[in-house]
Write a structure and sequence with these properties.
homodimer, alpha/beta, 11 strands
Chain lengths: ~170, ~170
């Protein structure tokens, strides 16, 4: 069983959180929602899904987790404005722990400056940002580059979950 | 009197459209709202402001305008996924026409690949994207670099409008 941190803020793409999390839990893994502040519910962008925050970033550490999920929507844009969110994400990458990024998820990885020379995919609007960060953008439903698993959009979720589960013990 | 195109999509930052537009019109300039599709109203992110689209991108050209306004919020993220929006913005820059960019506005300029060597400011979440695009990010209320006027957030609007008006004849 792996401990997965899902880093999340308001306006997350609902199904990019709910669907992978359901599959991860069904496979026996534990998912903890980590955000800027705790003690409140976050709201999804399209469906208004309410998600309880389990831990604030200041009260947790990447050491407490085996893997990281970064759902898309506008949640990554909100998170990347906070240095502790950027530092949290950066440590998973530098310690080579599994990171699952979908849609706008790469925005957090760009601010963490960990994409130089990596292969990744993401939402079409951020392709130029991904390339400018020194990464190789690939237009595929899922890209696996060592610890980093990435997908483009909600339609890619089955492939995204399939490859992510392979990285969890 | 100058003809200004305001390029806009849903989830624009309300006041970054309404306040500059009011000031531009009060000064005798004409503002046309250009978007992906016409015949519908766009909705602001925070206040739900409704804005009628005057022209679709496919039915207009940068040749019809003297200057460009790019309000922020999540409107630029939506626009930059469309090649005709990117091409529209690019032409104002390559023809050295005044471009007024605030908040997330630089996202469109990044996808248009026109920021190499330019001085610009923008919303804090996109600082790394701006730097990776080859621009010099400046943390100031307004940055004027030749034809390009930029600001960071709604609090900067008075300085943004003041410097933008200086570029209009």
């Amino acid at each position: 069983m792996a401990k997965i941190a899902a880093i999340l803020e308001d306006m997350f793409e609902d199904v990019e959180f709910t669907k992978p999390v359901k599959k991860f839990k069904n496979a026996g893994h534990e998912v903890t929602v980590v955000s800027i502040r705790s003690g409140r519910a976050l709201t999804g962008k399209k469906k208004g899904t309410k998600v309880k925050v389990d831990l604030s970033l200041k009260n947790t550490s990447p050491d407490d987790f085996d893997a990281l999920l970064i759902p898309g929507g506008y949640s990554p844009d909100k998170l990347r404005a906070h240095q502790n969110a950027v530092d949290f994400v950066k440590e998973f990458m530098t310690k080579n722990k599994p990171v699952f990024s979908i849609c706008h998820g790469p925005q957090l990885l760009i601010t963490a400056q960990v994409l130089e020379g990596r292969k990744i995919t993401g939402w079409k609007s951020i392709i130029q940002d991904i390339k400018n960060a020194g990464a190789e953008f690939k237009d595929q439903e899922v890209v696996v580059d060592d610890n980093l698993v990435s997908s483009r959009n909600p339609g890619d979720i089955p492939a995204f979950v399939r490859e992510s589960l392979k990285k969890l013990k």
